[in-house]
């Protein structure tokens, strides 16, 4: 089984808290990536070189950035897309075209989290969530190959429809759209998944105390993201395609 199993506790993907919930195999990581509809992408804006010392310590560029993005996955590569001037996409495009081969590829962290339930305990400090989450780390690169770019865009679009072929069920992308859309690939170097299921884990003394146990409700409140009934636009003239109508009542 392919795995990102860390070699030591110093590895960036090592799960330090509640290690029994950690998963490092490709299948666990990919299942969560494929289920999630939104990723949060962490990156840093490269500093401009100048003869002067750094601008101000409180400069916006000194802070790490985290931006929500839709995404797609092909193999162990995550793809992002957006308008060509996007700050995130420019920052993650790397040294391509700058003539400086010594510039390292930018690093990125991509996280996906899905809440599956509220876990209600006797003690407020034992309340929790059932969840599926993943953290992926890798170096980013600008996608310049035409075929890879089309494959990535197709996956990003179709993923929003749980694999429904929306890319094919659209008018063909034109040259202006292609030129003004930037695609970034993040080849996953390492990753970890973390999953919690089940009910509350209360202290024994609370469970055996009738004043507590008999007066405070405990359990799990399921949380689901569910697709609703498709609502046609005011200008729509077409029938609802099967891949869209079949989404109704499905959950991630």
Automatic annotation (TrEMBL):
PANTHER family reported for this sequence: 5-NITROIMIDAZOLE ANTIBIOTICS RESISTANCE PROTEIN, NIMA-FAMILY-RELATED PROTEIN-RELATED, FLAVIN-NUCLEOTIDE-BINDING PROTEIN
Protein name: Flavin-nucleotide-binding protein
Superkingdom per UniProt: Eukaryota
InterPro entries, A to Z: Pyridox_Oxase-rel, Split_barrel_FMN-bd
Coiled-coil ranges from the UniProt annotation: none
Pfam families linked to this entry: Pyridox_ox_2
């Amino acid at each position: 089984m392919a795995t990102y199993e860390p070699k030591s506790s110093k590895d960036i993907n090592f799960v330090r808290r509640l290690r029994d919930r950690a998963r490092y195999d490709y299948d666990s990581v990919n299942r969560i990536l494929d289920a999630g509809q939104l990723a949060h992408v962490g990156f840093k804006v490269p500093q401009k070189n100048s003869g002067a010392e750094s601008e101000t310590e409180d400069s916006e560029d000194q802070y790490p950035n985290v931006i929500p993005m839709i995404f797609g996955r092909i193999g162990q590569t995550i793809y992002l897309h957006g308008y060509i001037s996007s700050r995130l996409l420019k920052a993650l495009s790397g040294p391509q075209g700058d003539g400086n081969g010594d510039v390292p590829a930018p690093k990125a962290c991509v996280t996906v989290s899905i809440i599956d339930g509220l876990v209600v305990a006797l003690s407020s400090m034992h309340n929790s969530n059932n969840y599926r989450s993943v953290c992926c780390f890798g170096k980013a690169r600008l996608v310049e190959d035409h075929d890879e770019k089309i494959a990535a865009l197709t996956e990003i679009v179709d993923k929003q429809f749980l694999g429904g072929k929306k890319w094919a069920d659209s008018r063909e992308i034109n040259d202006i759209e292609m030129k003004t859309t930037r695609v970034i690939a993040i080849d996953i170097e390492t990753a970890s998944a973390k999953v919690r299921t089940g009910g509350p884990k209360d202290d024994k003394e609370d469970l055996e105390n009738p004043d507590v146990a008999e007066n405070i409700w405990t359990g799990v409140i399921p949380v689901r993201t569910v697709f609703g009934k498709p609502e046609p636009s005011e200008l729509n003239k077409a029938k609802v395609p099967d891949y869209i109508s079949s989404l109704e009542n499905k959950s991630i």
